Amino acid sequence: YNGSPLGSFRVQVGGLGMYETLVFPNPMRKTHRVTRIYFHLLSSIAGGHLRITDLNGRTVLRLDLAQPGVVQTNAPGVPPGSIGTGTHQDSTTWNYVEWDGRDQAGGAVSNGVYLYELQIKGRDGKTQRKRDKVVVMR
What ranges in the chain are assigned the alpha helix state H? Predict the structure, then answer.
């Protein structure tokens, strides 16, 4: 190589390209109004869901990402809740879904560990999932 710079490459398998998913704040404490599940996208999406379950596998909350206002972004000029806000994102632009620590009926969940599944469906019909945990400590 004789001092020549080496190149770097990002390899993407599939077309959707969801990457760098994180939850913040985690743990979710009494002082936090919501916790957000942040993610980057390399292409637009057709829908999907966020599902929160307890450790026994019971669904606590399920949000449809195609519903207006569920998927939000910090990208300038993009209307909140727009599906497909990931097109042409850079590393500073995030999509996110908020969870306020409540179940489907609107009641506050108990302290503990919960599992989330973020499933995103691309316009080509392919899906991509991210599963991880979020802790509630009030």
Answer: none
